[in-house]
Design goal:
By secondary structure, the chain is an alpha+beta fold. A two-stranded parallel sheet has the order 1-2. The longest helix is centred in the middle third of the chain and has 11 residues.
Length: 82
């Protein structure tokens, strides 16, 4: 399985392919993250809620998956009750 490296791909672009030259040393990367938690609504059986929430915690970290530098990555999140 390939591991995408977004900064490396962006370095291959030239100014003619974008709206000008990219300053990747000063670039910021933005990601979103959703946190699931058990709500009071009877949307599904309690054991299914627990399983669904547990499996959401084992997903890969997006910053690592795309080889983004941690000091230039902003992660914004929200919570959703299931």
């Amino acid at each position: 399985m390939e591991t995408p490296n977004i900064p490396a791909v962006l370095r291959r672009l030239n100014g003619a392919q974008t709206e000008g030259d990219l300053d990747l040393d000063g670039a910021s990367y933005f990601l979103s993250k959703i946190e699931l938690r058990s709500g009071r609504e009877p949307t599904m059986a309690p054991w299914r809620k627990r399983l669904f929430i547990a499996t959401s915690h084992i997903t890969a970290d997006a910053a690592d998956a795309f080889s983004l530098p941690r000091d230039c990555t902003v992660i914004m999140g929200s919570r959703i009750d299931v």
